[in-house]
Amino acid sequence: MTTAQAPVYKKKDFESDQENRWCPGCGDYAILNAVQQSFAQLGVPKEKFVIVSGIGCSSRFTYYMDTYGFHTIHGRPTAVASGIKIANPELQVWVVCGDGDGFSIGGNHMIHSMRRNIDIKVLVFNNRIYGLTKGQYSPTSEQGKRTGSTPYGSLDHPFNPIALALGAGSTFVARTVDTQIPHTRKILQAAHEHEGFAFVEILQNCVIFNNKAFEHITSKGVRDERQIDLRPGQPMVFGAGLERGLRFTPDAIEIVGASEADLWDPTGASGARAYRVCQNSEHDELPVPMGIFRQVQRPILDRQIHAQVEDVSERLGPGTLESLLNSGDTWEVR
Amino acid sequence: MSPVPALETLDEVVIRFAGDSGDGMQLTGNQFTNSSALAGNDLATFPDYPAEIRAPVGTLFGVSGFQVRFSSRDIHTPGDRPDVLVAMNPAALKTNVKDLKPGGMLIVNSGNFGAKDLEKAGYERNPLEEENLEHDFQLVEIDLNEAVIQAVAGLGLSNKDALRSKNLLALGMLYWIYNRPLDSTEAWLNKKFGNKEQILEANLRALRAGHKIAENGEFFQVRYEVKPAQLPPGRYRNLMGNAATAMGLVVGAKRAGLKLFYGSYPITPATDILHNLARFKNHGVITFQAEDEIASITSAIGASYAGRLGVTGTSGPGLALKTEALGMAVITELPLVVIDVQRGGPSTGLPTKTEQADLLQAVFGRNSEAPLPVIAPCSSSDCFWSAVEAVRIAVTYMTPVILLSDGYLGNGAEPFRIPSVDEIEPFEVQFRTEAEGFLPYARNPDTLARPWVKPGTPGLEHRIGTLEKSDGSGNVDYDPDNHEKMVKLREAKVMGIAAGYKPTEVFGDPEGDLVVLGWGSTFGAIRSAVDSARQKGLKVSQVHVRNVWPLPRDLGEVLGKFRQVLVPEMNRGQFARLVRSEFLVDARSMSKVQGKPFFSSEVLERIEEILG
Question: Which residues of A touch B40 (CB under 8 A)?
Fold first, then answer.
């Protein structure tokens, strides 16, 4: 057996010839950049990639990638992607969508593809606003948000996307930030390497309708103190010099010195600690977690489907047109 | 020993089994149907069951019925009125006896006519004692409950369990009356209960006991025989419409050189298609029970995009949910087959009853200009051929296709002549692999279809999507002239399918006083009625349309040869409206919306009224 040479690509091999129509300064540009850089490094032949997107600003992503791509309808990209992946498990199927696609109109497809553990990678660009319809609150908007549809402030409680993914049984759950490209690339690489469904929430800034929504945790001045990067097998440390850490107590999380920090393990049978740490609020003292919350193995639906087809074909013999037509009780008329 | 009864030959018989939804009437009917099929009769069935799975015992709304007509002649419907009614309880008697032909045979399980049973059916007095049933019908009262308890005595079954086999006792009686061997049902029982010895033995004993009781009990003075029908030569099997659809899809996929992906969400009366396809894994079939109707169609579209044949099946409410995704399949020009096994509506409506009222939804029910072809099978076995045709059109024209079946076709059964492989023309798909000169929306000059490219093909990476696209390149394009061009191109592609139709056939003379125009499952009732009317000397013909969109181009001309046009359909005149608007034909609607198919006698009466 010969080993196929891993293809060598540059970022520009993944750039399509289409003129980009996002607003200048949109966080989507940085994410596009990170994805193109990452894909060039993954060693996957580029014809194997399929990008599937929903509807919204982020979903235009498909048109800017020189891969196979399918820009679908609102909320349905995970369902379309499931069909593609089940039809041909050799394809590398990546979904790109926004918080409306992922958690509102398409919430049902999202949780079911998580539960099934279909081997697709889902990037949700969470800007906590409906941008393409010119600014209405989304299912991840903070309560009280004033928008076109909520002039006196929104009343709905938002989803915590990480908690949602953990609850729905996603086998890989991670979070990153549009402006932190090296971190984003690291997460994309890990999502690619994960065998099974991968959910990546990317905090993304909408310059027009929700500008600086994440600035209090992502701007350069506060980032080190307000974020903690959850790295598998590494101590839970944060701060400019990684001098502080987190430790779980029976009913809370406390800030301790780096040497006393707990080791972060996203692979355990229980996702309890991931669930606990994802509750850290942007508005309290504890740092907001980024990185990998969950990374576990479970049977993968698309592979199981094909294994079952092969198994049944082996037991019954491959079906022919004749055998199909002549199945069941038959009789002859002369 | 009683005297050997006479054996009388009949052309045909219609039997209706009626009982509680837990009495096994569908099973009994299906078994009788299979043995009639194996005896070489032509046949047609009409299962009529409640939406409730196990409605409270003995109630009127819990009655489940199964009508089978078997004949030595070529027949097209399950018959208007039964010759024989088997009523397992008072509720079944009450809801069905009015349909029984005068003088017909009425077999009643008198063991279920206690005070409580009568009360549940709303009888103040026992109809077996009070009503003149004996005068109107050949009444046969048998306590099947007692008989079955006797038959299975010694097996250690409780009375409750023993009573479960009473339907087989009734079946055994009918097998004797109609001179049928027990072996096909015995073989079926062996297969079904092979590992449950006690239940198997109880059912076998009940079946044989029924046969014996009929033979010895002097209930019946005559046995009947229905000779085999003169069907066209060939190998046959008994096939229900939904099973025929499933088989046609697989055969169509094989003829296209594709593997089938069936995405579906369970919905009555379409679920049997999913059940059938789920068993065909060794034919490379993948079935995906999706989280909802929307995911079932969008996953199928994804599968088509990836190079399989994507198919989804549903009933009316599900088709409504799939509407937006159908538009996606139209604009991305991917092949897709959508099956709608229609039922009574609106909304949840009558889940287990039949109707044809999704026609205009199928033809026009999408946002904006989103044309797609619609095909309607005309019989249970035609579900097979229509499914093959739907696949052929979908892959040849790169378009979604709707196959409009209905509950009557889907659940009904008839003999299906098994075609030889050569009878099914191959239409192998050629995927585009050549990178040179590739444009995602370049068109085949004959069909106007765009190329189908499997993701994974090197050098052909491209994007498709739901925004309006530029002719040729498929890039996003909002230019007004381009939009108009693309709308017209998509329309021309779909309307062009009609160029490939065979000329419209007329049953009867090509001109006359009246043509009865139909589509879908009304075929059998119309054919029987037109046939009878012609035998009476009336100048009436039949035209039946399978390709309901785009309509056959010669249809207007064909209809124009007749002085009047009558359109019977199980809706409020949707096809009549379509034909009027397309051909300016003065089509008269004959509407029936009772959740039941037309009787051929109803159509005949209307023909006579018009021509009288």
Answer: 331, 333
The residue-averaged pLDDT of B452-461 equals 98
Q: Do the chains contact at B308 and A87, CB–CB below 8 Å?
A: yes
What are the tens digits of pLDDT across the range A277-320? 999 988 889 999 999 999 999 999 999 999 999 999 999 998 99
**Residue of B237, B281, B463 lying closest to A329 (CB–CB):** B237
Q: Which residues on chain A are in Cβ contact (under 8 Å) with B263? A: 83
Answer whether B437 touches A (CB < 8 Å).
no
Q: Which residues contact B122 (CB under 8 A, 6 or more apart)?
A: B60, B94
Residue with tokens 């999913």: B274
User: What percentage of chain B reaches a pLDDT higher than 90?
Assistant: 93
A57 touches chain B (CB under 8 A): no
Q: Does A109 contact B184 at a Cβ distance shorter than 8 Å?
A: no
Q: How far apart are CA A41 and CA A249, in angstroms?
A: 40
Instruction: Reduce the secondary structure of B471-507 to three states and give it as a string.
Output: CECCCECCCHHHHHHHHHHHHHHHHHHHHHCCCCCCE
Which domains does chain A show, CATH number per domain?
3-213 (3.40.50.970)
Task: Please say if the pLDDT value at position A3 is more than 80.
Answer: no
From A23's Cα to the closest Cα of chain B, the distance in A is 17
Does CATH place domain B6-226 in 3.40.920.10? Answer: yes
Contact A332 B234 (CB under 8 A): yes
Contact A175, A200 (CB under 8 A): yes
Domains B6-226 and B237-423 share a fold: no
Q: Is some CB atom of chain A closer than 8 A to the CB atom of B476? A: yes
Q: Distance, in angstroms, between A312 CA and closest chain B CA?
A: 6
Per-residue pLDDT tens over the stretch A96-135: 999 999 999 999 999 999 999 999 999 999 999 999 999 9
Q: Could you tell me if A4 lies within 8 Å of chain B, comparing CB atoms?
A: no
Q: Which CATH class is domain B512-611?
A: alpha beta
For chain A positions 284-313, those within 8 Å of chain B (CB to CB) are 305, 308-309, 312-313
CATH superfamily of B237-423: Thiamin diphosphate (ThDP)-binding fold, Pyr/PP domains (3.40.50.970)
Question: Pairing mode, if any, of strands A227-230 and A288-295?
Answer: parallel
* Tokens of residue B573, six digits: 């005149």
Domain coordinates in residue numbering, chain B: 6-226, 237-423, 512-611
| Residue A320: partners with Cβ closer than 8 Å, 6 or more residues away | none
Residue A330 binned pLDDT confidence (cut-offs 50, 70, 90): confident
Question: Chain A within 8 Å of B261 (Cβ-Cβ)?
Answer: yes
Cβ distance A48 to B456 less than 8 Å, yes or no, reads yes
Name the A residues in 108-137 with CB < 8 Å from any B CB.
Answer: 108-109, 112
Determine the pLDDT at residue A284.
87
